């Protein structure tokens, strides 16, 4: 097996190809999960500290569109299409009727 780069080895110490002690590997996996969870939490906190007011302002703008009888158009491709669909599903029940169209929904996916 090829040696991992130092950066990748630091993220995934259990993939280095050497013989493994199950207890040490388990400890490394638990530590890896813990570090990733802490990193994710700190990034979310940093994002909301920096952008919290902008998100509240955006939510108010969306609410104003619906209160005014307007429509919200959300579109995307790939993962952004999922975001757009989630936005559609989160629309308030009293919102103006919405069309949700996923042009590729009937195509067979690569994984199936």
Overview of the molecule:
The protein is an all-alpha fold and 112 residues long. 56% of the residues lie in helices and 0% in strands. It is built from 3 helices and no strands. The protein has helices at 6-11, 22-67, 79-89. The longest helix has 46 residues, at 22-67. Mean pLDDT is 76; it is low at 107-112.
List the helices and strands and how they pair.
Layout: H1 6-11, H2 22-67, H3 79-89
Q: Encode the helix/strand succession as letters.
A: HHH
What's the average pLDDT? Answer: 76
What are the low-pLDDT stretches, counting only 5+ consecutive residues below 50?
Answer: 107-112
SS-derived structural category: mainly alpha
Strand share of the residues?
Answer: under 5%
Helix count equals 3
Q: Please, what is the oligomeric state?
A: single chain
Radius of gyration (CA) equals 22 Å
N-C termini distance: 30 Å
Helix percent reads 55-70%
Brief synopsis:
This protein is mostly helical.
Key features of this structure:
single chain, about 110 residues, mainly alpha, 3 helices, about 55% helix, disordered C terminus
């Amino acid at each position: 097996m090829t040696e991992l780069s130092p950066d990748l080895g630091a993220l995934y110490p259990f993939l280095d190809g050497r013989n493994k002690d199950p207890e040490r590997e388990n400890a490394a996996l638990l530590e890896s999960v813990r570090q990733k969870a802490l990193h994710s939490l700190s990034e979310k906190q940093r994002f909301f500290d920096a952008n919290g007011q902008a998100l509240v302002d955006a939510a108010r703008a969306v609410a104003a569109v619906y209160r005014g009888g307007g429509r919200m158009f959300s579109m995307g491709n790939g993962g952004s299409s999922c975001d757009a669909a989630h936005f559609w599903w989160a629309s308030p029940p009293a919102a103006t009727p919405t069309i949700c169209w996923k042009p590729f929904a009937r195509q067979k996916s690569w994984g199936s």
